[in-house]
Write a structure and sequence with these properties.
Blueprint lengths: L1 H18 L1 H9 L3 H14 L10 H29 L3 H12 L6 H8 L4 H27 L9 H25 L7 H21 L1 H5 L3 H28 L4 H12 L3 H10 L6 H26 L10
Amino acid sequence: MQSLFLPVGLVLSFIVAWWLPEPGGELKNLGLIPWMVVTIFLVNGYQTNLKELPKDRQFIYALIVAGIMALLIAPLIGLGVTQLLALPAGLALGILVKAAVPPTLSTCIVMTQLSNGYPLWALIITVVLNLVGVFTLPFMLGLTLDTQGSLEIDPLPLLKSLVLLVLLPFLVGLGLRRLLSLNPGHVVLRYLPSSCIVLTVWMALSSSHEIFQTLELSVLWQIVLATWLIHFSLMALAYISSRLLGLDPRARIAMLFTVSQKTLPVAISVLAALDQSLPIGEAILACVLFHFLMLFTDSLLEPKLRLPALTQQTQ
């Protein structure tokens, strides 16, 4: 049920934004999108238990390699794909942002669990890369967008926005875990981040519904191809590097999903923080379609990657 909540919610957000865009557009104009992002990372921080952090040397190596691939190499792959496909400015912006952001906040962990990998590895890698990504993302985007001519950003204001929207709420969530007695696995906390993603996408698409409604088939195929090129390139890199590190198959599963999957909330927060004179509507559409395709692709791959269940999981 929980694994279907986000995909189904995103489908509904598309439908509502298509048929009734006015309420979502008005809520976006009230400035609610940044508060959705803050809520996501506040809950994410509250659900993180630092005592469970793996400390063995092999995990540390895997974490460093995953960070290099997901935060430094992935944006360069995204740049190569946008240039290869000669994407227009709006689509290029969305693909470059999506390629540069850290791993998904929950999906890669769920996929790792379903495949009988090490979910704790996926959890810790995800949390660490999302925190480090606050500092790498503005500069990698500055590097890649500078090559696009019509797209340009100043990394420092974006860094400030990400610290306020991502890092600070996460740290507050960590602190609240020590003060509050609410179960981190409570049903409200499980579904609240996904609900915020759905609401954010609905508001963003509603405010750009003209672009959304004029999507052409050729543009859709460009996004599909760009998504698969980036996603499978990162999966291949994760597989090769995990073999070179000598990781066992369950750790390898965690690497595959955390390196190749890209988070939607951070992508939306980045676009919300950019100069609104840029083609943000097309970029948001590219990010959301990228996310759909990524989830759909991995849902088909997961049964083929699934390992025999452990009687007692030790990682």
